Amino acid sequence: MGRDTNSRGRVGRRSYLRAVGAGATAAGLAGCVGNLTGGGSGEPGGQVDDTANPTGSYEGVELNFATSSNYIDAWNDLASQFSEQSGIEVEVTSYAQSEMLTQLLNQFRAQEASFDAFISDVIWTGSFMQPGFAEDLGPYFDSPLANADYDYDDHLTVFAENYGQWNGTRYGLPWYGDVMKLSVRKDVLEEHADAYESEHDESIMPEMFGGYESYAKYNRVAQFMHDQGWDMGLEGQRGWNIVYYYPNRFAAETGEASMLDDDGNSRLDAEGATTALQHYIDQVEWARNPLSTGYTQSRDQFLDGNTWAVEQWGTATAQFIDEWGWEEGVRVSLTPGGYPNLGGWGVLLNTYSNQEVKDAAFLFAQWATSKEMDKYAFTEHGVTPTRRSSFTDEIKEEYPQARYQDPEENPGIEQLSLRPRNPSYQELGDTMQVQISDALSGNTGAAETMQSIHDEWESIMSENE
Amino acid sequence: MSVLEAVTDSSAVRARLDDDRTIAWLFVAPALVLLGLVAIYPFAMMIYNSLFDFTQAGRMDEFVGLANYVRVLTDGRFTSGAVFTVGFVLVVVTAEFLLGLGMSLLIYSEFVKRRQIWVVLSLPPMMLSPVVTGLTWRMLLTPEYGMVNHLLGIEVAWLASRPWSAVAVVVADVWMWTPLFVLVFTATIQSIPAVYYEAARVDGMSRWQQFKWVTLPQMRTAIAIVLLLRVVRAFKVFPKIQVLTLGGPGSYTESIAMVTYNYGFRFFDLGRANAAGVLYWLLMFVAAYLIFRSVAEDLISPGGEG
Amino acid sequence: MAVDLEGASNYSRLLTRGAVGVVLALWLAWIWGPLVWDFFTGLSANPQTTPPTLLPDEFTFEHYRNVVVEEGMPVYIRNSVVVTAVATGVSVVVGALAAYALTRYDPGDGQVSFFILSMRFLPPIAVAIPIYMMFVGVGWINTWRVLIIAYLPIGIPISTWIMLIFFQRIPMELEEASRVDGWSRIQTWRRVVLPLAAPGISSAAILTAILMWNEYVLALVLTTTQSAQTIPIYLAGFVTTRGILWGRMGAATIIAITPIVILAFLAQERLVAGFTLE
């Protein structure tokens, strides 16, 4: 955790302040944040009396759970059920999605984190795990707190790794498994199928699971449909959405899931990286208000029947299926080229809470991500499952969107495109969205944009090593 | 006041306190001490911190001299943010000044009755949070569901294309702050004694001349104050843009405050954030000082000579 | 001060009157249109329609219920009220003392007033970062007191300056006369200066309170949870990655602006007086 450099910095700063005669106050302010020391002591599960019922030993413990306000209903429900069953009081605090990372990190830096467990977006995991803010869960799985029926390996591997692991250590439990999908209006495409097929000698319809084989193909259809008076949905407004849309295209063109290699070097100088952006730029012409469209707008356009296709996350896909009927009005598939972007969440524990509360928080996290609750959160709150065991025939029958998450039915689900999952993601992603937004609005060309992002990424990665 | 009274009752110190200067310093002291603690001290810390590198976890790492300043000044985002902010300030303050002056003269022309009501009806936008202003205009300017494109019968990507996103930010700001100019200007115009105009008419002045030689000189102080307040405030533009365009397309509408915030609280690089904060302050100080110098006589007239 | 058009015919007078009426109507629509839009959005069951309509096709109070009951907006209002009230109170008291002394004796020959004013040049983000760093170690982040402290560099300069303008206009002769009558400085202050300055003090208080009520950047950096966050932070939360909740936003906006607009209307004479410069 860089303690050496830290204390060196503090000494240097102290002596400097003393020199200028401010030594007394410096002690209180030294180094902005002093050493963070974990609160509480003892082993995980140390106070469990009855190993058959570890929860019983924590009755009356109060813990605070932090969630994005997007999932406040689901977590309020889970928390109240758990409190009732276990006697452990769980209070839920919600944060605006756009500010949550900053707000949680500010608290960690203040050593006064008001929450004991929290959900973390896949791309925030690095920010919490790398500096050691999240609790290593390894000892908990070896303690009396562990539930023998939990079956960690039941979580899909990509979810378990990306939502919960850092350098091989387990910090989080997967909670919300989400992957981008392409939804198209099957009924509309069918009307135009003959005309397209005679012109292009290929099918207009994406494969049921696999989707279009490439973005080049998707673009051909998009251009054709545009000429028929149908626009596609495309998110091109400056925002994080751009860093969902671009990686889909990058991975499809280069065959690399990640835009950084294992040593943290940028892969954005690859030829495919530029082609990927060119595809994105070309689509602007065939899309509905692409520059002003963010997440909800592209969803609403599709729901309103104004677009024929859109790349979207699971919750929106579910709404499309409700609105247009699965395989009637709407066909859902992987994104073109078969590398859909990975979203989703994990549940992490705050390492600075005291041990008793951490134990209780672990019990809550374990319960909330158990087999039973994985299914429950999906059917009740639309939280897409992370566990293989959730893809039962009944569930897939009633909720067709679950089929896309089931590797047995949709093998492509385990090949995904990933955003850089490291603490510098905020800056890497920010550079990317800003520059691509510029390119989409016609201000810069694809090749120069990618070169410029590549250079920035290299410099960010070397500065923040 | 009771403390002060107690002090003045003690005859030993009374003589000394009778010195006007001492009393004056005593009165000014709380402001100076508080500002020293909550503004000057943090400001000094900011300068100091800007010379260090910080870890992602917010811990001070090593002394790096001016390296943070170099990084900030060579970052195109920061410089373009500074340029945009200066341009934004010039455009909005000019527009608000002209529109505010025009509306004030109109409201106080002989054609309008019940002027006070018109002034009051003009005020609400300036009382809103910039966040509210941003959200409101975002709703109005959204292409598909917004009222503006619908009413005008056009299709403009107000929030995401050049130059319209800058126009959108300016429109929202002008909407919000013109009322302040109306408030100040109408109050001033109202207080100009009618005899001045009578005298002007006796001299055979035209309406334009009356405006130029009577109204405008009487408004000098008000203009100076409101310009100073607005320029300083406009330099801080942040949440309005954050909500409206997020700084896009690209970094086209990104303000210097947004860039500085991003360094500190999105990229978690406190060294760069502090350096950017110092540079930001310098820019603002220079701008404000230039205005202050040019209007200083209007503002400072101690001893109630005005 | 009204000036009439000498020699203008009745006809052209009528024409001008009509034109002025049109401009005023446009002005009113420009100022109030967006607010009316907010109001109806907050009452609309389907806030997003293409093409947009001003009047909702279906009215609902659901958004208000959501905002107040589900999302706990009253808590943010409480935080805003406490922080605004305390920070405004301190700023106005401190500012009144300073402004009085500056107009009467001006210690430091104009340098002090410029120094106080120059605190307004500190960008909020430049105040926020060091204050954050000062208080992060002592656990004051996410408290009312850290916000109150952070608001003083905003409140003291603005209130000092508004009152400066006021105190300048209270003739010094009044005080001198009362001193001759044998009143102490304090008596003079209480019985002569304060009553005359009251409008200035109250308009300084109102304008300072408006600034603090609406402050965003400092609150964003210095507070992290609902227990200390203020209304603007809550409102900004409506721009989420899962979409902008227009209906709730309209409702919350109306709730947020109502107190401040009512306050300003009640005190409008004071507010205007605060700027009436002789």
Kindly report the name of the CATH homologous superfamily of the largest domain in chain C. Answer: MetI-like
**Main beta sheet of chain A, described?**
5 strands, mixed
Look at the helices and sheets of chain A and give the structural class: alpha+beta
Which class of the largest domain in chain A in CATH terms? Alpha Beta
End-to-end Cα distance of chain C, whole Å, is 14 Å
Determine the CATH superfamily of the largest domain in chain A.
Answer: Periplasmic binding protein-like II
Oligomer: heterotrimer
Membrane topology (chain B): Multi-pass membrane protein
Family (chain B): Belongs to the binding-protein-dependent transport system permease family.
GO biological process, one term (chain B): transmembrane transport
Keywords (chain B): Cell membrane, Membrane, Transmembrane, Transmembrane helix, Transport
Task: Note down, in words, how this protein is organized.
The complex is a heterotrimer of chains A (465), B (306) and C (278). Chain A has 465 residues and is α+β, with helices and mostly antiparallel strands. Chain A has helices spanning 3-19, 23-29, 72-86, 97-109, 125-129, 138-141, 157-164, 186-200, 215-227, 242-254, 271-283, 295-303, 314-324, 355-368, 371-381, 393-398, 425-440, 446-463; strands at residues 62-68, 89-95, 117-121, 165-166, 169-170, 172-176, 181-185, 309-312, 330-333, 345-349. In chain A, α11 packs across α18. With 306 residues, chain B is mainly alpha-helical. Chain B is 72% helix and 2% strand. Chain B has helices at 2-9, 11-17, 20-49, 67-73, 76-107, 115-121, 130-141, 147-152, 164-190, 194-202, 207-218, 220-234, 239-244, 256-266, 270-299; strands spanning 52-54, 60-63. In chain B, α9 runs antiparallel to α12. Chain B starts with a helix and ends in a 7-residue tail after the last helix. The model of chain B is unreliable at 1-8 and 301-306 (pLDDT under 50). Chain C has a two-stranded antiparallel sheet. Chain C is flat. The model of chain C has no long low-confidence stretch (mean pLDDT 83). Chains in contact: A-B, A-C, B-C. At the B-C interface, α1, α3, α5, α6 and α7 of B face α1, α3, α4, α5 and α6 of C. Chain B: This is Binding-protein-dependent transport systems inner membrane component.
